[in-house]
Amino acid sequence: MSDTGSDAADAAARGTTAVEVVRTLPEASVARLPVYLRVLSELALAGRTVVSSDALAALAGVGPAQVRRDLAPLGPRGTRGVGYDVVALRDRLQDVLGLTHEWPVVIVGAGNLGQALAGYAGFADRGFRVAALVDVDPLLVGSSVAGLVVDPAERLEDAVLRSGASIAVVATPPGSAQAVCDRLVAAGVRSILNFAPVLLVVPAHVEVRDVDLSVELALLAFHEQRRAADLPLDLPVREGRA
Amino acid sequence: MSDTGSDAADAAARGTTAVEVVRTLPEASVARLPVYLRVLSELALAGRTVVSSDALAALAGVGPAQVRRDLAPLGPRGTRGVGYDVVALRDRLQDVLGLTHEWPVVIVGAGNLGQALAGYAGFADRGFRVAALVDVDPLLVGSSVAGLVVDPAERLEDAVLRSGASIAVVATPPGSAQAVCDRLVAAGVRSILNFAPVLLVVPAHVEVRDVDLSVELALLAFHEQRRAADLPLDLPVREGRA
DNA sequence: TACTGTGAACTAATTCACAGCT
DNA sequence: AGCTGTGAATTAGTTCACAGTA
C-alpha cells in the first residue's frame, strides 16, 4: 500500500497521531450490545475488573466468537492474553448506545401495562425517565401512578413538547394506537415502542419497535407443539390433488 | 422429470392420491407467522375473503416476496391470479402454530407486570389461559387479579401440575428469576417467557424467550442518537497510538 | 501462555425476476 | 391479466481457525 494510504493512515504509521477510522456495526450486533452492557454493569458492580470473551459470552448466552465480532468494532479493544477492561467497555457501550444522558419518555395508556411500565425500575436504571403518563380514561386521569399524576389525553402534545421527549411508549388498546401514534409523531416524537398489536404507519424518519406479547407466546406454543411431536421445523403438507 | 420421480410423485402425477411431503420452514419465517395470523384474523372479521401477497405484506409491514416465501411452505397455497383464501389461510396458520387448543399458562410474579399480563386480553384471544398467578409477597397472595386469586409461591409446583401447563411466564425481580425458573422446569414446564433481565440457565429441552424492555428502549435510544447526528450505523473509533 | 481481532468459509435470510397457473 | 411459487442472485450473519500480541 506504500504511498497510496491516506494522510491519517500515514500519521498513524508514523506513530504521531491517533486516527479517526469509521467502523461499521452490523445491526445484529447492535441488538446484542444492550445485553453485554447489562452483564458488564453487573460485573463492574461485583468488582470484577477484566473479563474474557469466553466469560462474557457465557453470561450473555452467546458464542465467544460472536462477542469478539460484536465488540471489536467499538474500539476499546481488549488486551490480548488478558481480556476486556470491564469498566472501560461498559462505559464505551453506554456511550455508543447513547445512554450517557437522560432520555425523557412519554407513556401513552395508563392501563395495567402502562402502569407496569411507568413503575418499571429497569427504565430508570438505564437513564429513561418517564416524563408523563397519559390516558383518555377520566377515572385514571388525575390518579397517581409510580409517583406520577396521569395526564388527560388532550395534554399529550403538551407533555411531549414540555419534556422534549423524542421517545414514546404506546400502551393503548389496538383501536386507538394509530391515532395516538399520529399525534406523537406530529408533536415531534421520532422513536416509538409499541405494545399494541397493530402495524403503526409512520413517516420514514420515525422508528417503531413492536413488542407483541401474544406473538411471543405463540412462538413458544409453536415450538412446544413441535417438541411434543418430536418433529424438527418440518411440516407435513398435503401435496397434489385427489 | 419422466421416470426418475419417486413413487409418491408418480402417484401424484397419475392424480390418484395426495402425497405427504415435508417442507422445512425457516425460523425467520416462523417468527412472522403470528403477525400474518393477526392480520388474517382481522381481515376475516371484516368479511374479506381473499387477500393478495401484496395486500397482506402491506398490512403486516413486510415485503410481498417475503410473504409468499413464508406462506408457500404451509400448503394451503393461494390461487394464482387471485390471492390467498383468508379463512383457509388463517386456519392453517392457527393449526401450524398450535393455536387450535387452549394452552394453560402459569404466571410467576404478581407485581405490576404480572398483573398486567394476567389481564392482557391478547392472551385469552389466542387461546392462552392464565391457569395460575403466583407470588411470594404475602400482601398480594390471596388478592384477586383479573378474576384470579394470587397463589402463594409454595403452590408453584402444584399450579403447574394441576393445570398441566407447559408454558410459564417469569415476571419476577431479576434476583429470584433463576430459582423460579429451576422450580418451573423441575415441575415440567418446557417453555418460558422471561421478562426478568437475566440470562436463565435451562436444560437443552427447555426453551426460553426473553423480553427485556430496557433493551428495547436502549435500541431506540441508539438509533435516535444516530439519527440526531445524521450518521448511519458507523462509529468513529480512535485507532492507533499517540 | 492466553487471549483478542479478523480473514475466510459457511449458513441463513432476503430480494429479484420470471415461469406457470387460473 | 394478475396472481402465486420458486430457482437464482444477493446480502447479512455466524462460526471457524489462526495470526498476532501483551
UniProtKB/TrEMBL annotation, chains A, B:
Gene3D superfamilies (alphabetical): NAD(P)-binding Rossmann-like Domain, Winged helix-like DNA-binding domain superfamily/Winged helix DNA-binding domain
Keywords noted in UniProt: Cytoplasm, DNA-binding, NAD, Repressor, Transcription, Transcription regulation
Entry-linked Pfam families: CoA_binding, Put_DNA-bind_N
GO cellular component entries: cytoplasm
DNA-binding stretch(es), residue numbering of this chain: 35-74
Domain called CoA-binding: residue spans: 99-199
A single GO BP: response to redox state
GO molecular function: DNA binding; DNA-binding transcription factor activity
Binding sites annotated in the UniProt record for NAD(+): 109-114
Predominant location category: cytoplasm
Compartments where located: Cytoplasm
Function: Modulates transcription in response to changes in cellular NADH/NAD(+) redox state.
Family: Belongs to the transcriptional regulatory Rex family.
UniProt cross-references to HAMAP family, sorted A to Z: Rex
PANTHER family, sorted: REDOX-SENSING TRANSCRIPTIONAL REPRESSOR REX, REDOX-SENSING TRANSCRIPTIONAL REPRESSOR REX 1
Quaternary organization: Homodimer.
Protein name as it appears in the record: Redox-sensing transcriptional repressor Rex
Originating organism: Motilibacter rhizosphaerae
Phylogenetic classification of the source organism: Bacteria, Bacillati, Actinomycetota, Actinomycetes, Motilibacterales
